[in-house]
Hints:
By secondary structure, the protein is mainly alpha-helical.
Amino acid sequence: MPFGSLWLPVIVSAVAVFVASSILHMALKYHKADYRPCPEEDAVRAAIAKANPAPGLYATPYCPDMKQMKEPAIRERFDKGPVALLTVFPRGLPNMPKHLTLWFAFSVLVSFVAAYVARHTLVPGADGLLVMRITGTVAFTGYALSDVSASIWKGQPWSNTMRALIDGGIYALLTGVIFRLLWPAA
């Protein structure tokens, strides 16, 4: 089956996910719980501004070698706290057009990978439920599972991950349904 026959479901499912994510994040308010205000925000912001870190990811206490974890001074820093991961963005308001463009490109990528897997496992005219199951599963993997890793390794609250898994399930269902409806006939 030529891959060109799958571009329509790739693009339509990416658009559907983009619209659904906009509704989930802007109209419904359950993602407001993803972030909390920082205690003593002005003091924390002043301390970060004084250090003037470049945009990037930072850890404190910083311990690049796990062997150092046995050293009493390092252990004391962890015990005393705070233990934190910090993401520093460039100054200024978020560049929403850039972020939305990247999100749409990511949605196209997820749908493309779903189409790639389906193209190599299914034939034209395949059972619609099987098409939906395969493309939806691949889409769920792309949209949702990375948040589990963020909770395991980066301290993201599990409640945030549960909301991301719900979103990923919705995006996967949309992707699967669209591929089922637009799957090439035999």
